[in-house]
Amino acid sequence: MQTNGVSITWLGHATFKITSPSGKVVLIDPWVNNPVCPAEQKTIDKVDLMLVSHGHFDHVADAVSIAKATKPTVAAMVELAGWLQSKGVENTIGFNKGGTINVDGIKVSMTHAIHSGSTEDGTYGGEPVGFVIEFENGFKLYHAGDTCAFSDMAIIGELYQPDVALLPIGDFYGTPAALSDALHSLGLQDVEVVAIKPGQTI
Amino acid sequence: MQTNGVSITWLGHATFKITSPSGKVVLIDPWVNNPVCPAEQKTIDKVDLMLVSHGHFDHVADAVSIAKATKPTVAAMVELAGWLQSKGVENTIGFNKGGTINVDGIKVSMTHAIHSGSTEDGTYGGEPVGFVIEFENGFKLYHAGDTCAFSDMAIIGELYQPDVALLPIGDFYGTPAALSDALHSLGLQDVEVVAIKPGQTI
Amino acid sequence: MQTNGVSITWLGHATFKITSPSGKVVLIDPWVNNPVCPAEQKTIDKVDLMLVSHGHFDHVADAVSIAKATKPTVAAMVELAGWLQSKGVENTIGFNKGGTINVDGIKVSMTHAIHSGSTEDGTYGGEPVGFVIEFENGFKLYHAGDTCAFSDMAIIGELYQPDVALLPIGDFYGTPAALSDALHSLGLQDVEVVAIKPGQTI
Fold first, then answer.
1. C78 and B150 in contact by Cβ < 8 A?
2. Is C130 exposed, middle or buried (CB count within 10 Å of its CB: 0-12, 13-18, 19+)?
3. Can you tell me the ipTM of this complex?
4. pLDDT tens per residue, range A156-179
5. Which of residues 38-57 of B touch C (CB under 8 A)?
6. Which of A8, A53, B135, C141 lies most in the core, judged by the most C-beta atoms within 10 Å?
């Protein structure tokens, strides 16, 4: 897997800590206290940009505490950004699907996802989303958020052409090996499936 | 129409009572007090599995009372399951689009639908959904919930290959006869359209 | 641009005032106090039909005041219609995606859009929508609401065949000239792109 100077660490569930070529830290869907995150990686000292895909507990649980400690820019769907702000998170950016923001040279586009999006309080947190992150050197990473399969993922591919995709699999593609098999049966032998482990960096 | 031992009764609107080959009763979108449900079918004595597609009154109106009386497993979008639980419904399962649960040998997959999903209280009840039910003998039934037409219904067909689909029609395909004509014009002569009547069982 | 007796005035942002061949005034997403609406066009004396695509401030800001002053029929997603009614708006029609209403000879179909839909109060206002309006003479106009690109816009084209589309562009197609270039590169030379100015009527 060529990541072109971008360091991608999986912390379990949908939580990824990504270090950009210039050393910026992007934290996505912060739930470091999930059962599989290695103990020594639960403490996050530095975050420059935090992205949250939707308001469910398993994607947002540690967002407020880490944001208060590390003071990143925090970008999310407009309703969820407002909710985070209401919890004392500063420097929030609320935007919507199809929109792109530029945070100190890192571009983030918000993509469609099909799921639900309440907050921990039971209020409406806007629609669930995914993100395409374009790093300073042009390397592009797609984090799908929580979603079922949908054909307009093809639009995401066409518009953004991500180099790597972080995908939630399970009920249908099952294991990474099954996803790889499915891709091969579609003639997509050049797509590399990486079965990353919690705490592992690629 | 071959239903392979599965008995499907339409109780009007989106309400269906389905008996599985092993005698389990599945009740979908319980609103038996709708104007067209025959009086003698308004009383439901036994439900093993209740599915609710979204929180609108015409899909959930009798869910709480029937669930309290018959004690089924009740499965719905996670936010709606939480709402039902808050009304005193027990044995709820909250899941999300693309997910599959197995309730005593009956598999239920939650599918996408395009509509809105508030609860009777005006709160956010998650996104509206459809269901694909796979009965003990492999027979598969798709209940689309409330939805407009969307092309990713093709994904539902591809992934689950349902044997029968319960579809809300009206504004575009109009009558069952018009739907049948539309299917024929697309060369889909082998799709049988059944214009079921309230209270009728197929 | 042939508009067949339909007069289309852009008032900035997503706000359009449209006069039908028979003289009826349709006002969409009323936010006349937006920064670019010409001062002399901020006062709306007559509205027969008001349509609101979703509950965000920049689409609904002047809906209540204009509705109270001009007493139109006000049509929106069912949750948003309920919210408007709760603010004292009369003659609301709540419907849902895929549905069509007929208001004194003008047909309005509600279409899918991909965005979020809270109200100004932070409550759930249903899903965001677009509209296809068929005027008395058969001329059809599509107002996409706020949405990212999605492939099922093709279904809207196929089912309704609109004559003109009011589209939110920006992040991807950018300027009207870029949209025109993109259409040309797809071989769609017969699609005319009109770069309308705030306050301008076509």
1. no
2. buried
3. 0.94
4. 999 999 999 999 987 766 899 999
5. 56
6. A53
